[in-house]
């Protein structure tokens, strides 16, 4: 579904008179913004914000899913706020039940398997919980919600005296190499993978590139700690 197209001369009745359901919803969502007074957040520049309105017009329920993969639209049912944690909680529960302890790798695998099953089968409330995360608005809220706790945890636990000795090496790995990698990856993400056509700006591309440019230092440091790895290497990874 896309809100592109000029329906400014259409009435509400004419919108629902269109033959194609997709155009009915797009026309209705646009028509809501041209009423008097119009919203200052117009569909031309805030298309993602109007998608939730379009989902409401589509009468989405847990038994009737609406997903438009080409436009990255996952309509969710407006239920309770705690529904967003159903998918995350289920992944943790299944992993802990099967393997007896929390492990980032098994949590990732369990979540991935649930995501693949959800792609093919309607899982009801679970599918709705997944849709809430996939259609999170604004999208960069996902970065702000998950990155700070992970980074702060390592910063609090780091051996400061050892870090002072390895600070130069840590700076080289954490900034110089990451910046160079991000500069190379950003245009690839925007133009080669086509995310610019999906509404991503250079800021979004650079932010995502900076996330995938380095290796998962937190996971590597955790494995080194469990395996009794050298303290210098652990501090270097956390730094």
UniProtKB/TrEMBL annotation:
GO terms for cellular component: plasma membrane
Domain (Cation/H+ exchanger transmembrane): residue spans on this chain: 93-239
GO biological process entries: regulation of intracellular pH; sodium ion import across plasma membrane
Catalytic activity: Na(+)(in) + H(+)(out) = Na(+)(out) + H(+)(in); K(+)(in) + H(+)(out) = K(+)(out) + H(+)(in)
Main subcellular location: membrane
Pfam families for this protein: Na_H_Exchanger
Protein name per UniProt: Cation/H+ exchanger transmembrane domain-containing protein
């Amino acid at each position: 579904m896309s809100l592109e197209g000029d329906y400014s001369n259409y009435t509400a009745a004419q919108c629902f008179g269109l033959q194609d359901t997709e155009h009915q919803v797009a026309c209705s969502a646009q028509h809501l913004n041209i009423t008097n007074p119009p919203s200052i957040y117009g569909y031309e520049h805030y298309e993602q914000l109007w998608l939730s309105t379009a989902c409401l017009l589509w009468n989405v329920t847990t038994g009737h899913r609406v997903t438009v993969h080409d436009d990255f639209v996952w309509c969710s049912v407006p239920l309770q706020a705690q529904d967003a944690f159903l998918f995350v909680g289920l992944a943790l529960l299944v992993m802990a039940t099967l393997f007896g302890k929390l492990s980032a790798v098994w949590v990732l695998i369990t979540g991935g398997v649930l995501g693949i099953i959800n792609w093919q089968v309607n899982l009801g409330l679970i599918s709705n919980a997944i849709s809430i995360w996939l259609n999170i608005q604004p999208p960069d809220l996902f970065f702000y919600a998950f990155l700070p706790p992970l980074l702060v945890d390592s910063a609090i636990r780091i051996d400061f005296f050892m870090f002072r000795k390895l600070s130069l090496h840590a700076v080289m790995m954490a900034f110089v190499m990451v910046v160079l990698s991000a500069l190379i990856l950003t245009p690839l993400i925007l133009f080669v993978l086509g995310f610019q056509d999906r509404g991503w700006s250079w800021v979004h591309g650079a932010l995502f590139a900076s996330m995938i440019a380095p290796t998962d230092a937190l996971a590597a440091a955790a494995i080194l700690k469990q395996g009794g790895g050298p303290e210098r290497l652990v501090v270097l990874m956390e730094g």
